[in-house]
């Protein structure tokens, strides 16, 4: 009788052990492969002041264009005739969401939470918000996974020039292909999965039943969001280019940072190193500070880029990509709070969905 309550506890400990083991492997890999390359870190960091100012200025401009791509995509996904999601509102929510993402990386969880809160306050229904957020993520990370697969296979097969270590080309490409296939399978598997979840909810009781009920609408939201993303692509919606622009100009920012301190690696290596390295953004650390930098530096060192150059370029890039959106984003968050209050007062009272703040 006393054994049952111990099962969730033991499962939690197993997850902790697995996560600790993965973290330990990542730390050992960083110390083994990266630290020897940047042992002269002090002199390397002092060289940051010697970067070419014009290349760094270009990097700032390219990062601004990347932010513009994110805003264009957000507006294209959520704007409808008669709703409150104007270009200005899209800019405010997108910038505030970017700032929230910097505060809590975890694959953009902070930004997603703020976006959902703002969109609900703007009067969008739960279904519209869910479908739109899935559509936004599908379009954005569809570009990510497509690039990871395309450039990974391209480097590994020799079609694209550059070094091709299996762990940084073939394995990420296979991973991206699997993610794409899994996402597309939602179009077929959503209805059976929804029926399965409904049956589990009906057969359960108490807290477990509430969990199953909360999961029931998830497959439908995923399918509708995927359909919405495919629809934007099929009808040649211009805002879909924002997804490509957001990533492309962010990578171009990193390219300019490399040029500011010497030379950039081949384009395919730059793109692959960027996407493999930024997978560290999934780590739950503030702004990804440390995680992303280590991931990017480690990826480029593994591709054969000199350690000192990788450190300088990545730190310069991260300074620009972090602070350029974060500083105005903090101001836009305050503006968004005021805007939400105005929406609520205009409606008379706040709806329950819009209550609270992130």
Molecular structure report:
By secondary structure, the chain is mainly alpha-helical. The chain has 13 helices and no strands. The chain is globular, with a radius of gyration of 22 Å.
Structural class: mainly alpha
User: Separation of termini?
Assistant: 41 Å
Largest sheet: none
Q: Tell me the Rg in angstroms.
A: 22 Å
What is the N-to-C succession of helices and strands? HHHHHHHHHHHHH
Global shape: globular
Tell me the β content: under 5%
State the low-pLDDT regions, or none.
Answer: 1-5, 22-39, 348-355
What is the residue-mean pLDDT, rounded to a whole number? 80
Number of helices: 13
**Helix content percent band:** over 70%
Number of strands: 0
Q: What count of domains describes the coordinates?
A: 1
Structure characteristics:
single chain; 358 residues; mainly alpha; 13 helices; 75% helix; globular
Quick summary of this structure?
The protein is mainly α and 358 residues long. The chain has 13 helices and no strands.
Reconstruct the topology from this structure:
Blueprint: H1 6-34, H2 41-46, H3 53-78, H4 87-103, H5 109-121, H6 126-157, H7 170-203, H8 206-215, H9 218-234, H10 241-260, H11 267-277, H12 291-302, H13 307-347
């Amino acid at each position: 009788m006393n054994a049952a309550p111990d099962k969730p506890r033991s499962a939690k400990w197993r997850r902790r052990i697995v996560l600790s083991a993965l973290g330990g492997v990542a730390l050992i890999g960083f110390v083994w492969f990266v630290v020897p390359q940047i042992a002269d870190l002090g002199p390397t960091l002092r060289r940051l002041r010697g970067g070419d100012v014009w290349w760094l200025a270009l990097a700032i401009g390219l990062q601004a264009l990347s932010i513009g791509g994110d805003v264009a995509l957000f507006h294209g996904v959520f704007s409808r005739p008669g709703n409150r999601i104007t270009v200005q509102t899209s800019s405010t929510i997108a910038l505030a969401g970017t700032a929230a993402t910097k505060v809590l990386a975890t694959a953009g969880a902070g930004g997603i939470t703020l976006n959902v809160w703002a969109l609900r306050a703007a009067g969008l229904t739960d279904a519209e918000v869910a479908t739109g957020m899935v559509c936004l993520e599908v379009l954005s990370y569809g570009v990510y996974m497509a690039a990871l697969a395309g450039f990974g296979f391209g480097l590994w097969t020799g079609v694209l020039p550059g070094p091709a270590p299996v762990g940084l080309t073939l394995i990420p490409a296979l991973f991206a292909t699997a993610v794409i296939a899994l996402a597309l399978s939602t179009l077929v598997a959503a209805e059976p999965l929804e029926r399965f979840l409904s049956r589990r909810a009906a057969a359960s009781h108490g807290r477990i039943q509430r969990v199953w009920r909360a999961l029931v609408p998830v497959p439908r939201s995923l399918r509708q969001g995927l359909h919405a993303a495919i629809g934007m692509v099929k009808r040649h919606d211009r805002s879909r280019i924002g997804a490509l622009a957001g990533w492309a100009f962010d990578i171009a920012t990193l390219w300019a940072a490399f040029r500011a301190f010497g030379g950039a690696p081949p384009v395919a290596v730059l793109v692959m190193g960027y996407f493999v390295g930024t997978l560290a953004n999934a780590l739950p650390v503030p702004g990804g500070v440390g995680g992303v930098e280590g991931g990017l530096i480690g990826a480029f060192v593994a591709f054969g880029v000199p350690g000192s150059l990788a450190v300088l370029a990545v730190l310069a890039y991260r300074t620009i990509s972090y602070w350029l959106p974060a500083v105005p984003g903090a101001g836009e968050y305050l503006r968004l709070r005021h805007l939400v209050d105005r929406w609520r007062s205009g409606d008379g009272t706040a709806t329950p969905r819009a209550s609270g703040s992130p």
